[in-house]
Design brief:
The complex is a heterodimer. By secondary structure, chain A is α+β, with helices and mostly antiparallel strands. In chain A, a hairpin with a 2-residue loop joins strand 12 and strand 13 (158-163). Chain A is globular and about 80 Å long. Helices cover 43% and strands 12% of the residues of chain B. Mean pLDDT of chain B is 88; it is low at 1-70. In chain B, helix 2 (76-92) packs antiparallel against helix 13 and helix 6 (164-181) packs antiparallel against helix 7. The longest helix of chain B is centred in the middle third of the chain and has 20 residues, at 283-302. Chain B is globular, with a radius of gyration of 29 Å. The chains are: A alpha+beta, B alpha/beta. Chain A binds chain B through residues 47-48, 50, 52, 67, 140-141, 177, 179, 181, 215, 217, 281-282, 284-286, 289-290, 293, 297, 343-344, 347, 377-380, 383, 385, 409-410, 412, 432, 435, 437-438, 441, 596, 599-604, 606, 632-633, and chain B through 81, 84, 88, 91-92, 119-121, 123-127, 159-162, 405-406, 408, 504-505, 554, 559-561, 701, 706-708, 714, 716-717, 720, 723, 726-727, 730, 736-737, 793.
Chain lengths: 711, 793
């Protein structure tokens, strides 16, 4: 019987390390790994990974359920689990016993594996303890469940949970399905749940209970799972994450997050909401039925004190009631009848519909909102988009916030985007294969309980610049406040959030403590830089698209995309360009691409551009898995030749990964991969270790040196 | 010898030991005399040089091209993508001044027409507006350009009907076309020419026709002149030439396409009537129809030639106008689409033939793909040996054209012979008309039954209210579904609140008088007591007839957009590696004796329709075995028993016991309410809970829900219900996108699946108006996971 050897590596990220889980063939000899004589090293495939995380206050129980695809041979196997903090027993659902290795043994193991596998990815595990599970037989496939408990570290009132995930570099294939589910409960309301690594779908059944889920398919899984959250009784529960590179003299980066939900000060503003429905001929059929269903769902959820009106527009504009009315049973019934009787015919009189929807004077203490659904362009009444907006602005004395739904691809994306932008509303595009009622319900659930309007933020002495979004939108209970920017001055400050609540100006203060360098709650916070750059690129792209080209803005988009490795429709080519592309030529190329693309105001391409800009400005997760855009046809595009690495990126050029920053006057040092010098550098320099984890040859700036790693 | 195929400047080439000098792909290098060719640095043998060799290569290319350069099966998604790519290409050829391509007005007009046809908005799209502005500023002395331009303006006017600038431009071209023909028989390139040709003339006719659609009436005289012209210059062989004599493929499409327009414009004001039954069988109208028939015969003998984009645009207009799937015994669209997609370059250009620049060629091909590939909304049944089936030859042509605006996309119709294979009945609606009694042979009845069971809807109407025809249609229902087996299926007058009348709110002049036959979920057979087909023939677009036609289509498709030709349920991703496993599925024959004895049979075609999808995504086969009746224990090899129906199900004690034993022995049961039938759903739940205990929602963490197995799909995200089901879920405060399956766990295994929402009709592709169920793709995902889970090692 051939003796196979399978190893699984996991690293806990409690101190901000990169986390990994991997399986590969090999033979265990004490704490040493020895390649088998009769077969080459081979990585096994983690096909499915289900991560279940139960967090109660600051105590987490993690269950990692892995399906591993192995070879046909019999195998003796072991697993390595660096535990990081804590000394809790690990539960392994298998027919074998586990054995704990100390940090020194684990380091030796990792180094051996890195050499054998010719992969530096494993180095992230060094420094942790590990656990060995002998005698696991994989066969064709094996189901392995690991479970452990740990305390969640907290720093400056921000809880920071981390969990290892399968690592692509050490897997035979991307994980086909990676599902992460977090069930979080606290004694205080849970605030601003934020993951920089995964886009989470968050459900708040109760202020003190949150269910967050993320499912990725064909996931390269290069990053572990990280989650930040705050527990706070205050009304908003703001927290600040910061990053400043100690090696560079430049402004720091910050991310402010919070969530006005579940505070003891539970006050909701009453609202006057108009549902303005396109009933032109193109809406005929299920589209109008879906829109009608969407409105009926919203009306069922009106709060006491809310008032509503309905407006249907085709060639003519019909209004349900002359003014806003309360949503009593009889009125709701009449509203349904109004929609049932609405003729779905004619052309699209957007201008008149908006005008009628904005009529009326403002009433103190009541929020004015409009949900606007259309599938077309103005074909009746005023047809010029700019004039439609101008006319609307002239009548919008009540400062109605417009929440726009563009149905299908035949909308004028410029018009709708500017409508939302100019009213501090929002825009969502509903693809033909999506359901209008489902999308509207998701938005309305977020909008149903207005909390603050006319919101302003004062960052005190932080000396902030380049803050996004430029204008903080109205806050709703259960909605997230997410603001990214740059700051000059660290130390102790007070952030003041203010806004109108029930007709009076309210202020909410939050003391923050910003370290001078590194990160806020750990030394691996450089995702804040990537997040800021991503959102700024989204903002600039939208500015250029909606308000015309500006060479300065275009140059900034090029610079940011290149430095931070953010892939966009206009700049994706930068990753493919050779050394002959001058900055001037890059700007010119982007200018031309933007010009060609921005000329499309309607159609799929126009809608996709708008959706891309929105996605960049709302993006939360900034790992490589999410660094993508939709092209003119709606296909998701990414570029494998770029890797984001905090405030820098690596580009695949001439057979090696190159730092996005030029070497300048730095001296070049060549390091042989997996040499002693290589391992010493990896042990001493976190940036170097993270860079070489990408694999292959690397050329990267480190302080005053350009380090070139040769295979 | 290894074969290579290259496509170069639109010429399809096959290198079979030879290469044509001057048409060498960039990968090949050619040395000096004697010619040596290397491909990928490998020498190529048997090199021939010269035109003869090239011709030989072209011949060979026809034979082997699709084989040696496979692009996989033609699908609607691939066609749509090809159109999108072509449009992108055309956009890249636009100059800053708005003109497109190298042929100035000609390429700009065709480029603009292709953009419009592909759905680009003339109001909101800046580049299209620039092209239109550029065209409007030109004063072109060219019949082709004027004819195409007129179509551009007319198309743009449909989106912007009050745009007087567009109308004025159309009027200018219309007047130029009328004036430039002058006293001549037909058109030539420029106004000052004294002769004519059929290539220019077809575009002249097309331009005048576009103007007529926008209300610019050139009068009967003009159209009769055109009829006389194309009749006069038609060759004896049935084809047309550039002038007279020497029929060619391109000119025969020109003649035929023009004859269809002429016929509609001259004889479209007539419909069949019992008083005047010879409307289309004698006189000038009959001559036109005979001319068209002769033209079609010309292709019958010579086939089609799809290597030329000019021809593609011509044959598309003939095929679409004539409602023909086959021309010259070829599926003309399939032939052309395969050629066009095969020739498409990476930049989107489709360069076929030699006529025009790259924009012109690409635009012609795009128009072919857009119009020719549009979904077929109606089939018209061709039966018998006389024209009784087609007494109003333009009824569906007019109706379909009018429905374009309601559907906001081109639609097609086609005639289908009762002798054709069952799969040729591809449209959601089958129109049967006639003036005499129709007697179908048992095999034909079976074919129609199969059509209905696959989701088709029959609309039958007597031409001018012939009682004999109507009576025979009443009889046909009994032949399709004998009363003994289907006591619930019978003719009923449609009430005013029937879905056919309410699916779209219409202002009826008078509620139409129709009867319908329902299977309990949907009305699948309508019998009209009116004469709507006459109004369709007369193109009375504002009449109840057209309103009914629109509602009929929306009802029969449950308001679901029709997919284009070659739509498939197979996902556009590589197939899973095939394995040897085979899952056996059996439907359960449970009884409602005397009430609905065949209710158990509702999902007759579900598994058959689903099997190719299942094989594709899991690599596992699906075999539907004979239905089981639970009088004895089901075969142990059956992996899944399926029960569905519409009426309340009631199982005997024995049936319950057998079901229980089957599950305890490792079997799996799937139960769903057909089309979401509440009576069945409620009763089935009671039965299942009586046998297996309380049903519980399928946990999202289970293997079957998360799809953690080969070919498995994630059911926890993106499952989509139809609107009535979503309303039901929302009314109960649930999440419409969460899976709604319930299960009974037997020894920890999900062994019984229950869905109150329809899976069966969705799997069969049967669109049922107001169906309370899953959308088809979601139903397939659910079924694939249930069966795929059974196939796990």
């Amino acid at each position: 019987m051939g003796l196979g050897l399978l190893a699984m590596l996991l690293a806990s990220g409690l101190t901000g390390q990169v986390h990994a889980a991997a399986f590969f063939a090999g033979r265990l000899d004490g704490a040493e790994i020895v390649a088998q004589t009769n077969r080459a090293w081979a990585c096994y495939e983690v096909r499915y990974a289900d991560v279940r995380i139960d967090i109660a206050e600051g105590r987490a129980t993690t269950t990692l359920d892995l399906t591993v695809i192995g070879g046909a041979e019999d195998a003796t196997a072991f697993a390595v689990i660096p535990l990081g903090a804590g000394a809790e027993p690990v539960v392994v659902q298998s027919d074998a016993e586990a054995k704990v290795l100390g940090a020194a043994e684990t380091r030796a193991l990792c180094r051996t594996l890195a050499e054998k596998l010719r992969s530096a990815a494993i180095l992230s595990l060094a420094g942790n303890r590990s656990i060995v599970i002998p005698n696991i037989r994989i066969g064709a496939s094996r189901h392995i469940v690991l479970s452990w408990a740990q305390n969640v570290p907290v720093d400056r009132d921000v809880w920071n949970y981390a969990c290892p995930l399968p690592l692509a570099a050490l897997s035979g294939a991307p994980v086909k399905r990676l599902a992460t589910e977090v069930r979080l409960s606290g004694s205080k309301p849970i605030r601003g749940l934020y993951s920089p690594t995964h886009e989470m779908q968050v459900q708040r059944s109760d202020p003190r209970q949150v269910l967050a889920r993320s499912v990725q398919e064909d996931c390269p899984g290069t990053a572990g799972f990280r989650l930040f959250y705050a527990l706070d009784e205050g009304p908003v529960g703001m927290r600040l994450l910061t990053y400043r590179d100690p090696a560079v003299e430049e402004d720091g980066y910050f991310l402010l997050f919070g969530c006005p939900s579940g505070s003891t000060e539970r006050r909701v503003q009453p609202k006057d909401i108009a549902f303005v429905l396109d009933s032109s001929g193109s809406m005929r059929g299920e589209k109008f039925e879906q829109a009608q269903c969407a409105v009926e769902n919203c009306l069922r959820k009106l709060n006491p004190g809310d008032r509503f009106n309905l407006i249907a527009f085709g060639t003519e504009v019909r209004r349900f009631r002359p003014d806003f009315v309360a949503g009593d049973a009889a009125t709701l019934k009449a509203a349904t009848a109004f929609m049932d009787e609405t003729p779905v015919t004619g052309r699209t009189n957007i201008g008149e519909a908006l005008r009628r929807g904005a009529e009326g004077d403002p009433e103190p203490g009541r929020m004015r909102m409009m949900v606007f659904l259309t599938d077309g362009t103005p074909t009746e009444g005023e047809r010029l988009p700019a004039k439609v907006l101008e006319d609307f602005a002239a009548v919008n004395k009540a400062r109605v916030q417009v929440f726009v739904f563009g149905l299908g691809h035949d909308v004028n994306a410029h018009l709708l985007d500017r409508l939302a932008e100019s009213t501090d509303g929002s825009i969502e595009y509903v693809a033909p294969e999506e359901d209008v009622d489902v999308k509207v319900a998701a938005l309305y659930d977020r909008l149903n309980q207005p909390f603050l309007t006319d919101v302003a933020l004062d960052f005190g002495g932080m000396n902030v610049t380049s803050v996004f979004p430029k204008r903080v939108p109205a806050l709703f209970l259960g909605g997230d406040l997410v603001v990214a920017g740059r700051y000059k001055t660290g130390g102790h400050h007070t952030i003041v959030l203010s806004g109108q609540l029930n007709g009076t100006r309210q202020e909410y203060r939050q003391a923050v403590d910003i370290p001078d360098a590194g990160g806020g709650v750990s030394n691996r916070m450089d995702f804040v830089a990537t997040l800021w750059a991503t959102r700024k690129i989204g903002f600039l792209s939208q500015e250029i698209r909606l308000h015309g080209q500006n060479d300065e803005l275009i140059a900034e988009v090029v610079r940011l995309s290149r430095q931070y490795g953010v892939v966009t429709e206009y700049t994706a080519f930068l990753a493919d360009a050779d050394g002959s592309l001058t900055p001037e030529k890059a700007v010119e190329t982007v200018r031309n691409r933007m010009k060609e693309a921005n000329e499309q105001q309607t159609g799929q391409w126009a809608v996709n551009q708008a959706a891309n800009d929105q996605a960049l400005q709302k993006r939360m997760a900034v790992s490589d898995s999410f660094n993508s855009f939709r092209d003119s046809r709606g296909d998701v595009q990414s570029n494998a030749k770029v890797r984001m690495l905090g405030r820098r990126a690596l580009y695949w050029k001439n057979g090696q990964w190159e730092d996005s920053e030029s070497a300048g006057s730095r001296t070049t040092r060549t390091v042989k991969a997996f040499s002693k010098e290589f391992f010493d550098l990896a042990a001493d320099n976190d940036d170097f270790r993270r860079a070489v984890e990408v694999g292959g040859s690397i050329s990267i700036n480190l302080a005053n040196e350009r380090i070139v790693v040769e295979k | 010898m290894k074969k290579n195929i290259w496509r170069f400047s639109g010429s399809r080439m096959v290198v079979v030991g030879c290469v044509a000098l001057g048409l060498v792909p960039t990968r090949a290098t050619i040395a000096a005399d004697p010619v040596q060719v290397r491909v990928d640095n490998n020498p190529v043998q048997n090199v021939q040089v010269g035109n003869q060799a090239f011709q030989q290569i072209r011949q060979n290319a026809r034979v082997v091209s699709d084989r040696v350069r496979p692009m996989g099966p033609l699908t609607a998604a691939k066609i749509r993508r090809a159109i999108d790519n072509a449009i992108q290409f055309i956009r890249t050829r636009q100059r800053p001044d708005g003109s497109i391509g190298a042929h100035d007005a000609g390429s700009t007009a065709l480029g603009a027409l292709a953009l419009l046809a592909a759905g680009v908005d003339p109001v909101g799209d800046e580049s299209l507006q620039k092209a239109l502005n550029w065209l409007a500023g030109k004063d072109t002395d060219n019949t082709y350009v004027r004819g195409i331009q007129a179509n551009v303006w007319e198309y743009a006017l449909r989106k912007a009907p009050r745009d007087e600038r567009l109308r004025a431009a159309l009027k200018t071209d219309y007047e130029w076309l009328l004036k430039s023909r002058g006293q001549r028989e037909a058109w030539r390139y420029v106004a000052t020419s004294s002769d004519w040709d059929n290539s220019c003339s077809q575009y002249g006719v097309l331009g005048i026709w576009a103007a007529a659609r926008a209300g610019m009436d050139s009068g009967d005289g003009f159209w009769r002149d055109m009829a006389a012209h194309f009749l006069k210059c038609q060759d004896k062989d049935g084809g047309w030439g550039y002038t007279t004599g020497g029929s060619s493929h391109n000119m025969t499409t020109a003649g035929l396409a023009s004859m269809f327009l002429v016929f509609d414009m001259v004889y479209g004001k007539t419909c069949y009537s019992r008083e005047n039954p010879q409307s289309f069988t004698s006189g000038d109208a009959a001559k036109c129809l005979q001319s068209i028939a002769s033209g079609m015969d010309w292709f019958q003998k010579r086939g089609v030639n799809c290597d030329d984009s000019y021809f593609l645009y011509g044959i598309e207009r003939v095929g679409v106008a004539g409602g023909r799937k086959y021309i010259g015994e070829k599926d003309w669209f399939k032939e052309g689409a395969v050629t066009a997609l095969g020739a498409q370059r990476a930049d989107g250009a489709i360069l076929l033939g030699s006529w025009g620049d790259d924009v012109v060629k690409t635009a012609f091909s795009t128009l072919f793909l857009v119009y020719g590939g549009a979904p077929v909304a109606f089939n018209k049944l061709e039966y018998g040996n006389n024209p009784d089936w087609n007494l109003n030859p333009r009824d569906l042509a007019n109706l379909t054209k009018d429905l374009w605006s309601a559907y906001e996309q081109p639609l097609n119709w086609s005639s289908v012979s009762i002798a054709a294979p069952a799969e040729e009945f591809e449209a959601p609606i089958l129109l049967i008309t006639g003036s005499a009694a129709v007697q179908f042979a048992p095999a034909d009845v079976a074919k129609l039954r199969s059509y209905v069971r696959r989701g088709g809807t029959i609309f039958a109407e007597a031409s001018d209210r012939s009682p004999a025809f109507t009576a025979s249609m009443r009889q046909l229902l009994g032949d399709l579904f004998p009363t003994n087996d289907y006591p619930g299926i019978a003719w009923q007058p449609l009430p005013p609140d029937h879905g056919l009348f309410t699916v779209l709110r219409q202002s009826w002049d008078r509620t139409p008088a129709l009867s319908g036959a329902s299977d309990g979920s949907r009305t699948f057979f309508f019998l009209s007591d009116e004469y709507f087909t006459g109004d369709w023939q007369l193109n009375r677009t504002g009449s109840d007839a057209f309103r009914l036609g629109m509602n009929l289509l929306f009802y029969a498709t449950d308001l679901t957009p029709l997919p284009g030709k070659f739509a498939t349920t197979i996902p556009d991703r590589p197939a899973s590696e095939a394995n040897q496993r085979q899952i056996k599925v059996a439907r359960v024959r449970f009884g409602h004796a005397g009430v609905a004895p065949m209710d158990w049979d509702a999902a007759l075609t579900s598994w058959q329709s689903f099997a190719p999808y299942f094989r594709h995504v899991t690599g596992t086969g699906l075999e539907e075995v004979a239905p089981v009746d639970l009088e004895s224990a089901p075969d142990a090899g059956i992996g899944l028993l399926h029960l569905t129906g519409r009426a309340a199900i009631r199982l005997s004690a024995g049936e319950r016991q057998r079901l229980k034993e089957y599950v305890e022995a490792g079997g799996t049961v799937l139960v769903d309410a057909y089309a979401g039938a509440g009576a069945f759903g409620r009763a089935a739940r009671s039965e299942l809970e009586a046998i297996f205990g309380k049903l519980t929602p399928l946990d999202s963490s289970t293997v079957v829900a998360s799809g953690r197995f080969k070919g498995g799909q994630d059911l926890t995200r993106g499952l989509r219900l139809k609107l009535p089901a979503r309303k039901e879920v929302a009314a109960q405060g649930g999440q419409a996108q969460a899976p709604q399956l319930e299960v009974a766990l037997i020894q920890g295994r999900p062994a019984v699946y229950f869905s109150r929402f329809d899976l069966s009709a969705a799997l069969a592709g049967v669109e049922t108006y107001r169906c309370v169920g899953y959308k088809p793709e979601s139903a397939r995902r659910i079924a694939a996971n249930i069966l795929g889970y059974l196939a796990m090692d």
